[in-house]
C-alpha cells in the first residue's frame, strides 16, 4: 500500500475484525438485533442464547487463550488485542469509520508507505503515529490529527520540514526524524518553539546536518526539550560538540542516549559563551591495517642502482565516502 489509509485497511484484514469471533455474524446475531431494538437494555442482561450463538465471555476467551486458533501472533501490539476485544463486545462499531475512532496508537512499519494522506484525519483520538522504515519523503501537516503526541518517521526519505511545519500538531511531545535526508543549514529554522511548543524529545540522528551553531540557536527556544539525539550527523564530529550542547541547553537531560550528570555540566560550564571554539571542520585519522592483492612497493626498492631493467612505479589511491 502506498498510503496510510490503504495500509490501515490491510492491517484490519490481518486482524480479522470482520470474522469470527469478532465482527457481525451468526455467532452474535440475536444479541446485535436486541441492541438495535432496545439500546436501554443493560449490558449484562442476557437470556438463553439461540443455537449456534456464543456469549461475549466465550468469544473473549477464544481471543485471549494463546493456544486458540483465533489468538493473535505474539508480535502483535496490545492495542490490536484490545481492539478485537472491543469489537466482540460492540461489533456494531465496525460500521463506517467508527473503528478508526477507537485507535489511539497506530504503527505501520516497513509497509512501503509513501503518502501521509488525508484519510489519517478519521483517527480523531490518535496520539501515537509510528511510520518507521517506509518511503515517506513529504509529510503534509494538515493531514495529521491535532491530537498527536508522538510522531515517529525514522528510516524514511524526509529531506525538507517545510510541509510538516505548516500546521504541526500543537500537542506533539516526541518528533522522530532519525535516518532521513535532512541537511543544513536550511532546516534548522523549522525546529523552534513556534512550531513545537510542547516538544520534549527530538531525534535528528543520522542525517546530514552541519551547522551546529545555527541548530543550537533554534533549539534553545524549545523550553520543554529534555531528550536530544544528533549522533551520526557531520556536526557531531566537531571536537567541542557535546560540551557546547550541554552548556547551551541547560534543561537537557539526555544527549545521544547518554545521561547528562551535574559533574559533566559543571565541566563544560561557560563553553556556550565561546562560539569561536566551534570550528566547522573535523580531522579524521584513518589507519589501514592490511591490504591484499596489491604489489608490495618494498619489493621494487631492492633493485640495484646500476640495473638496466625498467623502473616500475606503483601508486595507490584510497577513497572514503562520508
UniProtKB/TrEMBL annotation:
The UniProt entry, under Gene3D superfamilies, shows: Ribonuclease Inhibitor (3.80.10.10)
What is one term from the GO cellular component aspect held by the record?
cytoplasm
Q: Which UniProt keywords apply?
A: Leucine-rich repeat, Repeat
The record, for SUPFAM superfamilies, names:
Outer arm dynein light chain 1 (SSF52075)
Q: Which domain of life is it from?
A: Eukaryota
Q: Does the keyword Repeat apply?
A: yes
Entry-linked PANTHER family: LEUCINE-RICH REPEAT-CONTAINING PROTEIN 51, NISCHARIN RELATED
Tell me the protein's name. Answer: LRC43 protein
Origin species: Pheucticus melanocephalus (Black-headed grosbeak)
